[in-house]
Amino acid sequence: MIRIGIFGYGNLGKGVESAILQNPDMTLAGVFTRRDPSCVKTLTNAPVYKIEDAEQMANEIDVMILCGGSATDLPQQTPELAKLFNVVDSFDTHARIPEHFANVDDVAMKNKKTAIISVGWDPGMFSLNRLYAGAVLPEGKDYTFWGKGVSQGHSDAIRRVEGVADARQYTVPVPDALDAVRSGSNPDLTTRQKHTRECYVVAKPGADLEKIKNEIVTMPNYFADYDTTVTFISQEELDKNHKGIPHGGFVIRSGKTGINKENNHIIEYSLKLDSNPEFTSSVLVAYARAAYRMNKMGMVGCKTVLDVPPAYLSSFDGAYLRKTLL
Amino acid sequence: MIRIGIFGYGNLGKGVESAILQNPDMTLAGVFTRRDPSCVKTLTNAPVYKIEDAEQMANEIDVMILCGGSATDLPQQTPELAKLFNVVDSFDTHARIPEHFANVDDVAMKNKKTAIISVGWDPGMFSLNRLYAGAVLPEGKDYTFWGKGVSQGHSDAIRRVEGVADARQYTVPVPDALDAVRSGSNPDLTTRQKHTRECYVVAKPGADLEKIKNEIVTMPNYFADYDTTVTFISQEELDKNHKGIPHGGFVIRSGKTGINKENNHIIEYSLKLDSNPEFTSSVLVAYARAAYRMNKMGMVGCKTVLDVPPAYLSSFDGAYLRKTLL
């Protein structure tokens, strides 16, 4: 049995806890939280510890899955925990991945631990698909579309607008843009042409709706570059119809082959997820298995999904996989 | 530069020759053929040798890409050539893969060569996607659809019917079945519900068309289990509209997460290929790079796509891949 620790118990941590139940070769050794452990009730009655207690449990945990945020938690926690544990994280601040990799690699190498960072779907499964498609079709073009799905950051930005009580924002790929890419015409697409943004907003009583709407659609970085729709709804309607955290998206590569580049090929990978955090958690758990195996084989240091032999993710052995999947 | 040899010069071999031009870290060392080399003109004026000459060129070729057929060529050639070369093949007789793996592994291990078998799209990229999706969503169901594309085997079967001059058969996925799978309803689908078969047939002068049609649609194994349409056309029309070798398909996994399995997720991978052999060749070439690198690192023996770290397929280094793809 692979003994898993969960470090941080929000949506992602709960998703990992559920996912472990689906993997018969794994067991949950404990949940680590900043809160008072006696106040935290886990979904499966797993034991809860303070985060400070983790270091005393180095011999009882094979892989620690870090479930904190990328802004402040993971840059500090992943290198710290890689001193004692094999670790997996979902660090997703794209621009800072090289720096995070270097920090984690240094510690993991010194302590002979295996650390897999930036695991999830983007970065993660989408990155893998960009890699495979680009290696197979070197002369081509990549397109990534996100959605339809909830953007937490954009929803938060709307909630900071004066007069807004609550909000939910969906990123939506533009169907015509998807069709153009799938046709093999290799279009150049602007930000506005690729995605629209749909905002469902609950206004405070007496708020100026026109003013709220205008402030949202002109907000720089978040909405100004997109065609944005704002729909005012009641809190009841938001709670009823917009409480899920769905997401997904598409990675498409269009490329040419042939001595005269006469043949076109489209490789498309897509996800349609009812729960963004639960899917990310499921990816983290599969990579925890890989981290455990790679460490047993002496493959230490910092890794990403691009480095992990696919078979290491599966609970089945090589002979079974060859027989059933090839 | 990685020096590639091409063993067998049909559609697949020509595809490899074209694909090498798109990979700046590779060079074509030679083409090996059963025919008289002086009668074979290559697309890029690469040198042509007799297959018997291969063994004298062991020091001039880093990876031999085998481009023969799975029925009789590869079961004999891959183990034979793995004595002297790192090899990549596209062996696709699913039921015999474990046996082929064992034969090749034995020779490759003894001779410290790296052999990657069953490379292409199915087996190959589709197998990879079944593996990743199954590891991430252990509680779910896999669906593979093929087409729209030309089945060479089914086209050949029609050509053997009395009165048929020429034929082309397309395998076509049923749109309603695809939609049902994508809805997450996890349907049980019969052979007939998943694919239809479209046959374009050129009859010989004076042939009995009803008899031909009946013989096709009732043919056991090939057509009897499918809804099959037969359309009679002229040789000119077949030559004009049906000479390409397109193919493709879909691998879809539908799976549940959550403590009460309340959330559903759909992972879909699809290919739309203008040229089946050229795409397969492009996959072979990317895996030739991996075979070269794995051999340098001492990773010898028989491997499949399931064993190869994704980054080994790319001509770019790890730091660049992390910066641009994650």
Question: What is the structure about, briefly put?
Answer:
2 copies of one chain form a homodimer. With 326 residues, chain A is of the alpha/beta class. Chain A contains 11 helices and 14 strands.
Task: Provide a descriptive summary of the structure in words.
2 copies of one chain form a homodimer. Chain A is of the alpha/beta class and 326 residues long. Helix content of chain A is 34%, strand content 26%. Chain A is built from 11 helices and 14 strands. Chain A has helices spanning 11-21, 73-81, 97-110, 125-136, 152-159, 175-182, 191-194, 209-217, 235-241, 276-296, 318-325, and strands spanning 2-7, 26-33, 48-50, 63-66, 86-88, 114-116, 140-146, 149-150, 164-173, 195-203, 227-232, 247-257, 263-273, 301-303. In chain A, the strands form 3 sheets. The first copy, chain A, has a 7-stranded parallel sheet with strand order 3-2-1-4-5-6-14, sandwiched between helices. A 4-stranded mixed sheet of chain A has the order 8-9-10-11. Chain A has a 3-stranded antiparallel sheet with strand order 7-12-13, with helices on both faces. The radius of gyration of chain A is 22 Å and the shape is globular. The mean pLDDT of chain A is 97. At the A-B interface, α1, α3, α4, β13 and α10 of A face α1, α3, α4, β13 and α10 of B. β13 (263-273) of chain A pairs antiparallel with β13 (263-273) of chain B.
Structural class of chain A: alpha/beta
- Total number of helical segments of chain A? 11
Q: What's the mean pLDDT score of chain A?
A: 97
Rounded to the nearest angstrom, the radius of gyration of chain A is 22 Å
